[in-house]
Amino acid sequence: MPSVKPRKSCKNINCDDESPLSNALGRGRGWGRNPCLCGQKKSLSPLCLCGEYKTQQYRAFQPFHPLKIWGNTGTARGARGGLLGAPRGDNSATLWVTRYVLLSTADWSMRYICAKLAPLEKNTMLKINEKRFLADLRELSLIGATAEGGVSRPALTARDIEARQWYRGKIAGAGLDYALDGAGNQSAILWSDPPSGKRILAGSHLDSVPNGGRYDGALGLLAAFEALRTMKDHDIRPKLTLEALNFTDEEGAIMGLMGSRALVGQLEAADLERSKIAPEELSKRLEAAGISRESMLGARRDDVLAWVELHIEQGTRLEDGNIDIGVVDAIVGIRSLKLTLQGEAAHAGTKPMRQRRDALWGAAAFVSSARQHVMDNYSPGVCNIGMIGAKPGAFNIVPAQVDLALEFRHGSSEEMNAMSDDLLGLLEVCAREFGLRASFEETPAVHPARMSETVMSAIERAAAALGLSHRRMLSFAGHDSQSMTQICPAAMFFVPSARGISHNPKEFTSDADCINGANLMLHTLMRLVDTLG
Questions:
Q1: Bridge partners, 438 (sequence order)
Q2: pLDDT, tens digit, for every residue of 197-247?
Q3: Which residues pair with 86 in a beta bridge?
């Protein structure tokens, strides 16, 4: 084989386009334009987009070798300037290049080539259809739109049913299959070939709180749907079947996390009896969705291999830190206590101050000390006292009894147990100080949900490949992901919320952040397929 004379054509003086790779694929052999490794001149699809290939040595004069590249599922331009059809079916394309691109000068590693091509990565990865995705977000926001600019779609009301019908129509239009389970959870399905026994699920919910925002739930579902639709557009057949799933009643109009609890087998008949709406109304809503109490109790699935969810943060940590993505490592547990401080009623004018057993004074001391103790010892844990009532409740009577509603949240059971012990200890201290008797009643707890390291790693690696900054953080709000941890590896990630506003018509996430989230969902699913398939 004749030698190739180096030829420099890039105007970037820092570009090493006299390398054997550049010249063998460029004008030095008369095979088309020089692909220039710095990215200023390129006519060749990059050999590696993820930077994760293991080091391999390539010697001269060995004619061909296949190299897999992510995100290039269309037609690739080959080493001889011809068009090479990229095979489809495993989320990647195979580009055939001559092994003698390294000539006889030296053995190079694939890791070096990937490093040289890194500047092209962000521009060549598979991406969602941004205009279509944003148009869907805006179209969906019209269903149940409120005068203030938000949406009202409480679960299984007329507006929620309309949104569910809209989603089913979008699934059909995308050429994906549709499924409805016994809990009313809706799925868009992209089948593997052959159909896999286990599936990877992603999504969120379409229902909203009354007069809520346009992004809570809707963004996560549509991002998962757009990810599947993008793969469908590019004829990608994943090795594992994928579903974009709309959970029924995440927000709790009937009961919180109803659809996801049914899917993981945690919903019981007694839960339906304790629903927030009357039995007749519940039957009517279930019938409108094509389901029943019996079907909901039989909706458990055992074919879920992994779950991933995108959601708006509903806080300001990402915005304050100028960070693109929050990778949730745990969803906090929630404990609620009904506290009672019992004192003695007395005349508000005649009873000396030092002799009073004022239950409200004890309650005030507890509220202040609990706040400071949690801030000093349990950050980022939180506590809240959202209700307080004094009895007898008159201007001229010293309060004999005060009832308080205490809630506290943290990311681990150990921290929750310690917070509980400390807060109840503080309650006793305050009671003794004011001559009161303290008691409490604990309501059923929501346990912390740890996220899967496997799924979190897939999110983080995909974010790095997309050039998105990210950090791990707790979720202080409840989500369907905490139900999914009961049956499969699960994780979720956040995009920023403007000023942290949520459950409010002013809820807002920028188009750029929405697009970032959808692209991250796409590449997270692709990596999960590669890892778990």
A1: 341
A2: 999 999 999 999 999 999 999 999 999 999 999 999 999 999 999 999 999
A3: none
| pLDDT at residue 443, as a whole number | 87
Q: Please state, in angstroms and as integers, the Cα–Cα distance from residue 446 to each residue in 216, 408, 412, following that order.
A: 21, 11, 11
> What is residue 124's predicted lDDT score, i.e. its pLDDT?
56
Segments of 216-356 assigned E as strands: 241-247, 304-312, 325-331, 333-342, 346-347
Q: Where are the beta strands (DSSP E) in 35-156?
A: 57-58, 64-70, 75-77, 83-85, 92-98, 108-109
How many other CB atoms are there within 10 angstroms of residue 66's CB atom? Answer: 10
Q: Of 446, 242, 443, which is closest to residue 334 (Cα–Cα)? A: 446
68, 56 contact by CB (below 8 A): no
Which positions ≥6 away from 189 have C-beta within 8 Å?
176, 177, 178, 179, 241, 242, 243
pLDDT at 45: 33
Q: What is the DSSP string of 210-229?
A: TTB-SSTTHHHHHHHHHHHH
What is the spatial distance between Cα 220 and Cα 82, in angstroms, rounded to a whole number?
41
User: Contact at 8 Å (CB) between 42 and 92?
Assistant: no
Tokens for 394, please give them: 């008159």
Binned at pLDDT 50, 70 and 90, residue 134 comes out as very high
What is the DSSP secondary-structure string of 453-472? HHHHHHHHHHHHHHT--EEE
Cα separation, 168 vs 159, in Å, equals: 14
pLDDT digit string (tens) for 3-53? 444 444 444 444 444 443 333 333 333 333 334 444 444 333 333 333 333
Do the Cβ atoms of 239 and 90 come closer than 8 Å?
Answer: yes
